[in-house]
Amino acid sequence: MAITSSLGIGSGMDINGIVSQLIQAEGQPAFNAIDRKEDQANSKVSALGRLKSALSDFRTATGKLKEGGAFSQHKTNLTDEDKDAAMVASTGLGAAAGVYSMEIQQLAEAHKLTSKGYSGYDAVVGTGELTFSVGSNNFSITLDGTNNTLEGVRDAINTASENSSVNASIINVDDGAGGTVSKLVLTSEETGTANNIAVSASGSAGLSDLTYTAGGSGGMTQQNEAKDAIILVDGQQATRSSNSITDVIQGVTLDLKTAEVGKAFDLNVSLDEENIKEVTDAFVSAYNGLMTVVKDLGKYDAEGGEAGALVGNSTLRSVQSQMRQAVSDSVSSATGDFNSLAMIGITIDRHGVMSLNNSDFSDSLSNNRNAVSDVFSSEQGVAARLDTRLDQYLQSGGTFDLQTTSLKDQLREYSDERDSVQLRLDDMERVLMKQFIAMDVAVGQFQSTGAYLAGQLANL
Questions:
Q1: H-type helices in 329-398, by residue range?
Q2: 333 to each of 257, 308, 326, 337, 443, how far by Cα in Å?
Q3: pLDDT exceeds cutoff 60 at 359
Q4: Which candidate, 325, 357, 328, places its Cα nearest to that of 344?
Q5: How many other C-beta atoms are found inside a 10 Å radius of the C-beta of residue 339?
Q6: For a tag on the chain, would you pick the N or C end, based on fewer CB atoms within 10 A?
Q7: What's the whole-number mean pLDDT along residues 210-231?
Q8: Are 25 and 425 spatial neighbours (Cβ–Cβ below 8 Å)?
């Protein structure tokens, strides 16, 4: 009866449709209100994420100026026509501008020894002990019935736990009589005369073929003599064990490629102004990007009724004022006339847009590079001030994390509120269905009784 009546059979009414419309009319305002609150909270979470990302980008740009290293960057230039073949020079911290006459007289080379020819990899060499001495590295290998072949010797050398100086390999070459022989090759891992290889043996007679002493005696043959690199810097000789030299010109690494006695060329070390401007341009761009985001999130259009997601937000106002103050104030720890960004060519117009005047900035670098560096990286410098203030926003558990956590808590509350409204509507729907079904049954009974009475009256 209830199922039939729920379809409106007794009264002819669409009970399901009526109840559904009543429930929707009751619940829609509440759901709309929750939707608006959720949209606002989600917009704020997204806006805070956008602001935090802009602050993070700004801190990255600021960090490159904080330590002052950016203003100590130098570059090198070689005047030799074949400079790429002769040497590669690079600069690091501590480099100073200057021009140096360079001549590469000799490249450093690694010591290399070659054994006599053996019949193959599996040729038996002997048993006993081989001791190797290369510079300060000394180690020994033991040869027995399990590893006394040429291949076994090679592997024992390369896998020795204390070996940090010798690489062993095997080459197969002509024997001069139409055949092929295998030879053990020992190469020092490091170049220079201090890394000569010496090998001594104890055990079976065959191991003496793998010995070598500093004087050149022994069973092995010197294939390549160990040599030090020799260069002339402004006519002064410098001898080093490696072809990568870092301690002749302060802050400059010299990677030697080709030696040619009597061929000199100039090495010019100069301030890398292009890199300094690049880093400074990135700082200016990041600041303007941050302020654009701040302006967009805090805008309010009274005529159009449009408002930014963080309009009136105290954190947004704090970010705007603190960042503007940090870049505008003078720097007490900077010396001379160059004690603010404005004094070195970085200004902010009335619209809050920062710009770099390349001409003024170049003049400042030329006249007093240290002062320019101090404006950014000294104790009270712009970059140092910004780093402190940015940290309070970006650190774990800081302002953004707290606000984001609070908003996410609100979103969970709105979800619970939505569930509560839905439960209330479900209860209401059940009550209305019972009431309408009861009404439909009653109407059906009235109609049945009326039809019966009408029939009886008609019979009379």
A1: 358-377, 382-394
A2: 45, 39, 14, 12, 94
A3: yes
A4: 357
A5: 20
A6: C
A7: 94
A8: no
With vertex at residue 386, the alpha carbon angle to CA 382 and CA 389, rounded to the nearest 5 degrees, is 145
Nearest to 9 by CA among 444, 436, 446: 444
Number of Cβ within 10 Å of residue 277's Cβ equals 16
The CB-side HSE value for 375 (13 A sphere, CA atoms) comes to 24
Q: State the CB neighbour count (10 A cutoff) for residue 20.
A: 13
Alpha carbon dihedral 274, 278, 281, 282, in 10-degree steps, equals -170
Q: Are 392 and 402 in contact (CB under 8 A)?
A: no
DSSP symbol at 160: -
Does the pLDDT of residue 336 top 80, yes or no?
no
**Rg (Cα) of the chain, in Å, rounded?**
43
What sign for the dihedral angle of Cα 234, 239, 242, 247? negative
Encode pLDDT of 169-215 as tens digits: 999 999 989 999 999 999 999 999 999 999 999 999 999 999 999 88
**b/e per residue, 114-151, with b = 16+ CB within 10 A?**
bbebbeeeeeebbbbebebbbbebebebebeeebbbbb
Amino acid, res. 427: D
Locate all alpha helices (DSSP H) within 299-357, ordered by sequence: 314-328
Helices (H) and strands (E) in the chain, counts: 9, 19
Query: Residue 360, class by beta-carbon neighbours within 10 Å (0-12 exposed, 13-18 middle, 19+ buried)?
Result: middle
**Residue 88, helix vs strand vs coil:** strand
Q: Which residues of 233-259 are buried (b: 16+ CB within 10 A; e: fewer)?
A: beeeeeebbbbebeebbeebbbebeeb
Give the start-end residues of each E strand in 175-214: 180-191, 197-203
Secondary structure letter of residue 363 according to DSSP: H
Q: What are phi and psi of 300, to 5 degrees?
A: -145, 120
Sequence-distant (6+) residues with CB within 8 A of 377 are 65, 66, 67, 68, 71, 383, 384
Beta strand extents in 42-136 (DSSP E only): 74-78, 87-91, 98-106, 110-114, 128-134
pLDDT, tens digit, 9 for 90 and up, residues 11-58: 667 788 888 888 888 888 888 888 888 888 888 888 888 888 999 999
C-beta neighbour count of 322 within 10 angstroms: 17
pTM value surpassing 0.85: no
Averaged over 151-177, what is the pLDDT?
A: 96
Q: Yes or no: say if 96 and 394 are a contact pair by the CB < 8 Å rule.
A: no
| Length in residues, the chain | 460
